[in-house]
Amino acid sequence: MIENPNKIKAEGGMASMTDLVFLLLIFFIIMSTRTTNTHDINLPSGKANDQAKKMNPIDIILDENNKYHFMSLNADGTTNLALIEKEIKKEMAKAPDKEHPIKVHADKFSETGMFTDLFVMAERNKWQISFVTKGS
User: Fold this and answer.
1) Cβ–Cβ < 8 Å for 87, 73
2) Residue 136: predicted pLDDT
3) Fewest beta carbons less than 10 Å away: which of 9, 13, 101, 125?
């Protein structure tokens, strides 16, 4: 029987594999140091009990049908953004010495355009606004 002298070896070299792993490791280490923070996010501190006395939060609810609910302005609880803005100004005028963070409780299926309208309103009036999640 004659054996084929041009037989291809199916063995893999481990030296090239370790070189590749180290190159990838070095690449990701260098790239992770070059990232920058693009947005400044104002996160609440862990001492909520001390701050709770100074705050009077205002809650806005945005349901899955993209309806705003605010302090039951209407019989069915729904309202529009202009009425919400007017009522928030009234609430802030009642206790001007307290902070009034606006908390938005939004359904995860509501439209992002509704969020944008709330952000524009808060930015126009220089109000703090935050979104409440399941964990908060």
Assistant:
1) yes
2) 45
3) 9
